[in-house]
Automatic annotation (TrEMBL):
Cell compartment(s), UniProt: Membrane
Signal sequence extent: none
GO cellular component term of the entry, any: plasma membrane
One BP term from GO: toll-like receptor signaling pathway
UniProtKB keywords: Glycoprotein, Membrane, Receptor, Signal, Transmembrane, Transmembrane helix
Keyword Transmembrane part of the UniProt annotation: yes
Organism: Neovison vison (American mink)
Major localisation: membrane
GO terms of molecular function: pattern recognition receptor activity
Protein name: TLR8
Amino acid sequence: SADMEFDPHSNFYHNTHPLIKPQCTVYGKALDLSLNSIFFIGREQFEAFHDIACLNLSSNGNGQVLNGTEFSAVPHIKYLDLTNNRLDFDDDNALSDLPELEVLDLSYNAHY
């Protein structure tokens, strides 16, 4: 199909659709960390990426309670994709470190 491409170096077919939603990149630089088994988000993880506007952390199995400090190194995030995790938003300060946030996708976050 048109969505599949042969990679001669790995000798298998893979999907070439980007994991970052197209509407996300409209906001500027994007960082895709989806599907990386990131179970804990800490401020120091993003210190080198201060200028990103879109962050995809979907499908990481993260189940932490966000307390408002996790994204303080990337305050210019406008689009945050946290779909398909197990995040807990029990803390009133969750995501308070993102003053420019416009789009937040929390789809499929069944906290257990």
